[in-house]
Amino acid sequence: MLDRSEPYEHGTGAALAISITHSPARRESHHTDPGAEVTNKLPTHGCPPSALSVVMIAYLSKMRSSEMSGAETTQFLKLSSAVFYGLSSFLITVVNKTVLTSYRFPSFLVLSLGQLTASIVVLFVAKRLQLVKFPDFSRDIPRRIFPLPLIYLGNMMFGLGGTQALSLPMFAALRRFSILLTMLLELLVLGIRPTLAVKVSVFAMVGGALMAALDDLSFNLQGYMYVMITNTLTAANGVYMKKKLDTADMGKYGLMYYNSLFMILPALVGTWLAGDIDRAWQYEGWNDPFFAAQFLLSCVMGFILSYSVILCTQHNSALTTTIVGCLKNISVTYIGMFIGGDYVFSLLNALGINISVAGSLLYTYVTFRKKPSSSGGGSGDSLSSSDKKLLLPAAGRIDNV
């Protein structure tokens, strides 16, 4: 789950955001559902859990404060929502890696099962409390969203498998292949042709990843296979969602909830048949409160990440959200060299990783660059129609850049 993201993770990682219109009505009340207005316009993403808790508490307390001026409140919401998203996106990657590698938890399948269960429980409770909105169950929902649940489950499981098997720098570099696959699928299925600048930036990302792979001293064939399967599923998910328009009213939370609900039983059966439930049951680290806390956090971070993306884009812009996601991935790339203890330095590998990072920065710039409007009076946060056509869907989500 990467990126979703993330992820990726997740699971589930997204240059899939589109520009948000900043209307005064959206800031009149802090009691409106922050996800309702932007859910269908967004990408489907080493920091202690306490840091995230502090940001969440500060954010909620300021939301309820009536003593701040409107300008001060708006400025605080912009900053806190961006920090909240950055911490959430960073934390979900690091926590997954820590649980699977540092603590040597034996089964990424059991962890994905925990994430599915947590998504169902958290979203069900949040819907009952009217914190989020998505359609009630109906008989036509399975037909409307199929085969997205299968893609969602595979993306989550193989993404966590790649996280366990590879170092974070190589995992982040190889995940950028999903953007190349999305670009090719968009050309073949949707007929969307990227500009030369987008092609150059994508090839720089992929070329750097290939250079790094040529001298990966901790090479793991199984991990590479897991990541490439995840990239293929991520690209297929994004293009399929663009083509299948009858899922638009489901929203981000609705798709997450029903994907998890429909796949929980098959995932449980598959994990049991693989023998991973027994291995997880016999794991000796369950009595460690630090491991238990991080395992639980890994399970619920999918929902927290999705919520933070919505808040960040609502209070800032799609461009800000994408830049924060890109900066997060750069942080994961370099800080990840010291997390998990499985990265082995070599000059060619490090050079390739840096080229891939530079390509991701260039990609962010050329995809979201602001073009002057013909009247010269366009909004600074809005994107031209030609820019919107270049935005990759859920496959190239922020967490993969």
UniProtKB/TrEMBL annotation:
Question: Which Gene Ontology cellular-component terms appear in the entry?
Answer: membrane
List the keywords (alphabetical).
Membrane, Transmembrane, Transmembrane helix
* Predominant place of localization: membrane
**Transmembrane region(s):** 82-99, 105-126, 146-166, 196-215, 221-241, 253-275, 290-311, 318-337, 343-366
Write out the biased-composition intervals (Basic and acidic residues).
Answer: 25-34
List localization entries: Membrane
What Pfam families is this protein classified in?
A: TPT
The Sugar phosphate transporter domain covers 83-363
Q: Where is this region: Disordered?
A: 23-44
Does this UniProt record's set of keywords contain Nuclease? no
The way this protein sits in the membrane is described as: Multi-pass membrane protein
| Protein name per UniProt | Sugar phosphate transporter domain-containing protein
Q: Which organism is it from?
A: Anopheles stephensi
